[in-house]
Amino acid sequence: xxIKTLALAATVALCGLATAASAQEISRIGGAPGGPFVAITxxxxxxxxTMYFVSxxxxxxxxxxxxxxxxxxxxxxxxxxxxxxxxKKSMATAGLTLGDVVKATVYMGPDLVxxxxxxxxxxxxxxxxxxxxxxxxxxxVHGLAAPGAQLEIEFIAAKKN
Length: 161
Hints:
CATH architecture: 2-Layer Sandwich
Number of helices: 3
Oligomer: single chain
Number of strands: 6
Order of helices and strands: HEEEHEHEE
Helix content: 25-40%
Strand order of the largest sheet: 1-2-3-6-4-5
Largest sheet: 6 strands, mixed
Strand content: 25-35%
Distance between the termini: 35 Å
């Protein structure tokens, strides 16, 4: 019975989200000009709240590819710090901070060291300065969009308008 009640509540919430979104404009923020996607999509939820879907962020190479040599992406710590810097910069364009994040999805390449990624993660979430922690799923994947990169993180955030 409890599962049916939760399923019904989720369905009602999604219907409310669809109704609120159709009544108001969905915002699309950032992204590369001419690119295939935006950096952030904001969907009004009603009740003065907006849900934001933040596209995945990759690290910036420590050394870009040159003279036929591939990019040097750095170790797990460097890549994780770079991803957080990139995604926080993107989120700032929509007035969002890591404190607004409610769900995270982490995609990790086969050479990523999970424990090292988590060490950096815990400098961003669950701290005295930013105590909020999101729900999270993490997956090892065969490869990411940027050859050699070992980490991509995407968020869902919610914030009062």
